[in-house]
Amino acid sequence: QKLEGAMTELGEAQAQLDEKQAELDAVKAIYESAMGKKQQLIDDAEMCKRRMNAATTLINGLSGEKIRWTEESLEFKATIKRLVGDALIAVAFLCYTGPFNQRYRNRLFETWRNDLRKNDIPFKEDLDIIEFLTTQAQIGEWNLQGLPNDELSIQNGIICTKASRYPLLVDPQGQGKKW
To answer: Is there a contact between 146 and 179 (Cβ–Cβ < 8 Å)?
Structure first.
């Protein structure tokens, strides 16, 4: 009888243990689910933090570009404003300076600049006609072809290549012919 009572108690205890184990398994499943969601939220927050850092870095980098673009925009507006005067000097150079030496060309440039000032036409005061009408790559190519690298020769090269008519070369040293 004692054995039967003990077995009954054991059965009840086992049933209670099974019930509590089922409850524990259910709570563990809820816990695991909550921990999974927590880890997902931590991962999402970390990814969001990385994106925010990348965006901040990009914005800071572009703020420097904004300054540079603003400066370049102002310079571009000034260049557009001076373009008419600069083009007048360039056209006058191409049309009228061909037969003259460097000293007389410089006097012509000064005369044209004075005329532009008198007529309130904006132009770049330190306009370099060579830089305005050609590139360093073109000058380098001309030098490789035999054109001397002095200012007068480069100006003559510009006149020869940009003029609408064939230029007459008075060339006692044969440099223009060689080129």
So the answer is: yes
CA distance 104 to 35: 89
Tell me the C-alpha distance between 170 and 158, whole Å.
Answer: 16
Please, what is the Cα angle at 107 between 153 and 121, to 5 degrees? 105
- CA-based nearest residue to 89, from 125, 65, 49: 125
pTM for the model stands at: 0.61
* Non-local CB neighbours of 99 within 8 Å, separated by 6+ positions: 170
Other CB atoms within 10 Å distance of the CB of residue 56: 10
* Angle subtended by helix axes 151-162 and 102-118, to nearest 10: 70
Which three-class secondary structure string do you get for 50-100?
HHHHHHHHHHHHHHHHHHHHHHHHHHHHHHHHHHHHHHHHHHHHHHHCCCC
- Are the beta carbons of 139 and 129 closer than 8 angstroms? no
Summary mean pLDDT of the chain: 90
Kindly tell me if the per-residue pLDDT of 45 is higher than 90.
yes
Cβ neighbours for 109, distance < 8 A, ≥ 6 positions apart: 89, 93, 129
Q: Give Dmax (Cα) for the chain.
A: 142
